[in-house]
Amino acid sequence: DVKVTQSSRYLVKRTGEKVFLECVQDMDHENMFWYRQDPGLGLRLIYFSYDVKMKEKGDIPEGYSVSREKKERFSLILESASTNQTSMYLCASSERGQAFDLNRAINSNQPQHFGDGTRLSIL
Amino acid sequence: AQKITQTQPGMFVQEKEAVTLDCTYDTSDPSYGLFWYKQPSSGEMIFLIYQGSYDQQNATEGRYSLNFQKARKSANLVISASQLGDSAMYFCAMREGFAGNQFYFGTGTSLTVIP
User: Fold this and answer.
1) Which residues in chain B have their CB less than 8 angstroms from residue A5's CB?
2) Is the pLDDT reported for residue A100 higher than 50?
3) What are phi and psi of B68, to 5 degrees?
4) Is the Cβ of A43 closer than 8 Å to some Cβ of chain B?
5) How would you label A33-44 residue by residue, b for 16+ Cβ within 10 Å and e otherwise?
6) For residue A104, what is the nearest residue in chain B, using CA coordinates?
């Protein structure tokens, strides 16, 4: 089974601190993602990475950065934590989408696999 | 425009009854995949079921089935014979394109199973 491990389930930090959230997956997945989840807003994509050292901004990248130095590890960094970054943070990984095959249509049927989440509180 | 819409913030169902959770999607790409996830109160996201846009039949996985209506762009999750352990948040998600890497999630539906 795919295992996505987030370094902490619960984390409490102070305003202005630099915060690191770590995520490791063991299935050699190309893609990795960071989301934040807030009540009534669902999952919002912060950043994703489709290869080592590659990153793409998601819907809400402001105040965050990421690092992917190794394929299995994707780190989310809060450069200067603020109270409005108190949230649940979810890491996910997936295989890269399948390439188009001229002979038949191929759906991208690989799901994302999630870690257990980190509940981050900024005081 | 929202890619995925879940219009039911909360649902209640009697134990052993069936329940349908609604999901509509928006895409102009002919190739896409639709996913449902369950999130219990403990927080982990559990993948339940997948439906591809080219699949001819509705997906089924145990007590979960997907009512896929392509023309209406809906992919409703049906849970049969509800159990207390089904109480959780349920998210619908879409992956676009032949080689799409990004997933789009709805805002979720909170399901409560009543004994």
Assistant:
1) none
2) no
3) -95, 115
4) yes
5) bbbbbeeeebbb
6) B54
